[in-house]
Amino acid sequence: MQNTTHTNCLRCRRTLTSAKSQATGYGPTCARHIRHAEQTVNATDYKAHQVASARELIEDGAIVPLKSVVFIAVSTDGTETYKTAPTGCTCPAGLKGSRCYHQLAARMLLAA
C-alpha cells in the first residue's frame, strides 16, 4: 500500500496529532476498539489469508466509511477501489456472491 498520512481518524473523524496515528489513520482509542472488535467478529466463514488481508486493509487505512454501513476499500494492489458492506462488495469475488476480505474488514470496523 502507499504511504498515506491521515489528518483525521477514519473511525471517529477526530484530529490525529501523533505521527503513528496519522500513519495508521486511527487514534489510540479507536485502534483499541478495532483490535477488540477483530476478536469478537465471527470470522469462521473466512479463510486465514482473508482474515489477515482484512486486518492489513484496516491497518493500512485502506478502508474508509462512505455511509453508515458502506465503505470504500482499496484493492490488494492499490489500483482499484470497491464499495463494500458487511453483506456485499463490488470486488470480483463479491460480485460472484463469495465472501471477500473487504466484507470482513467492514464487519470488523462496524463492530468497533
UniProtKB/TrEMBL annotation:
Is the keyword Transferase assigned to this protein? no
Residue ranges annotated for the SWIM-type domain, each copy included: 70-111
Keyword terms, alphabetized = Metal-binding, Zinc, Zinc-finger
Q: Which is one GO molecular function term here?
A: zinc ion binding
Q: Which domain of life is it from?
A: Bacteria
Q: Which Pfam families match?
A: DUF6011
Recorded protein name is SWIM-type domain-containing protein
